[in-house]
């Protein structure tokens, strides 16, 4: 037996032994069975549990869905690069607004579940990292807040 073949055989044997050690030979948790209790109170964590406020900030989601959707709607001309709904950050690439001649990129942070101006932070940059006028930033923030309120009214949760 060659050295390479012996090495391969040893690796395969080790992997098979490791895989066999993962199971205990029973099928008690192999999947849902009729006798298992599937009531939400008995089966453990639900996806909705992520959205319930708890004491651990690593398990909370603090993003207002209306501000999130309004930000994406208002800035739909910008290509989305990254989104993180758990931290509330949306980063876009450069894009030119309809009817505009200058390109922008944006970073949006939604820091609170409240539909409030304090929950929204917006940073706009021009080409090459150039600063954008405060009036332009304020106008975009106002457009996002207005759209968020419209979405909330459409949702019927006044």
Please tell me about this protein's structure:
This protein has helices at 3-22, 40-43, 65-74, 134-155, and strands at residues 80-84, 89-92, 105-110, 120-125. A hairpin with a 4-residue loop joins strand 1 and strand 2. It has four helices and four strands. The radius of gyration is 25 Å and the shape is elongated. Mean pLDDT is 76; it is low at 29-40 and 42-51. It has a domain at 62-155: Alpha-D-Glucose-1,6-Bisphosphate, Chain A, domain 4 (2-Layer Sandwich). The chain has a four-stranded antiparallel beta sheet, with helices on one face. It is of the alpha+beta class and 158 residues long.
Residues in helix, % = 25-40%
Overall CATH architecture of the domain at 62-155: 2-Layer Sandwich
CATH topology of the domain at 62-155: Alpha-D-Glucose-1,6-Bisphosphate, Chain A, domain 4
CATH top level label of the domain at 62-155: Alpha Beta
- What is the overall shape? elongated
Helix/strand/pairing category: alpha+beta
Instruction: Figure out the total of helices.
Output: 4
Largest sheet: 4 strands, antiparallel
N→C terminal distance: 77 Å
Uncertain segments are: 29-40, 42-51
Please provide the count of β strands: 4
**Strand order, sheet with most strands:** 1-2-3-4
Mean pLDDT across all residues, rounded? 76
H/E element sequence: HHHEEEEH
Report the C-alpha radius of gyration, rounded: 25 Å
Strand content: 5-15%
């Amino acid at each position: 037996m060659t050295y390479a073949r012996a090495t391969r055989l040893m690796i395969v044997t080790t992997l098979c032994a490791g895989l066999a050690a993962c199971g205990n030979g029973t099928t008690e948790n192999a999947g849902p069975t009729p006798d298992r209790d599937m009531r939400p109170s008995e089966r453990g964590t639900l996806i909705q549990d992520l959205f319930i406020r708890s004491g651990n900030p690593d398990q909370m989601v603090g993003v207002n869905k209306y501000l999130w959707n309004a930000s994406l709607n208002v800035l739909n001309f910008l290509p989305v690069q990254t989104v993180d709904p758990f931290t509330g950050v949306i980063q876009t690439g450069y894009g030119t607004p309809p009817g505009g001649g200058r390109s922008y990129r944006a970073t949006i942070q939604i820091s609170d579940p409240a539909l409030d101006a304090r929950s929204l932070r917006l940073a706009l940059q021009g080409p090459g990292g150039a600063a954008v006028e405060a009036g332009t930033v304020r106008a975009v923030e106002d457009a996002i807040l207005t759209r968020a309120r419209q979405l909330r009214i459409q949702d019927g949760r006044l």
